[in-house]
Write a structure and sequence with these properties.
This protein is an all-alpha fold. Helix content is 72%, strand content 0%. It starts with 12 loop residues before the first helix and ends with a helix. This is Uracil-DNA glycosylase.
Length: 60
């Protein structure tokens, strides 16, 4: 596993407070959740790139 890096992010205070309330009940940390969501986003984007690439190859 790669070393972690720190980044500052801006969050809506109301959203952050609500997230902390619900995530805290489940033992989820903000950084863990953000990391998972970023990985999901990257996966989705790679899949879209692959679909676009295959479509372009199919039109040649």
């Amino acid at each position: 596993m790669a070393a972690m890096t720190r980044h500052n992010i801006s969050l809506d205070p109301k959203v952050y407070e609500e997230f902390c309330h619900y995530a805290g009940l489940k033992g989820i940390k903000v950084s863990t959740w953000v990391n998972i969501k970023m990985k999901e986003f990257i996966e989705d984007e790679k899949m879209l790139e692959e679909i676009k690439k295959k479509r372009l190859e199919g039109t040649r």
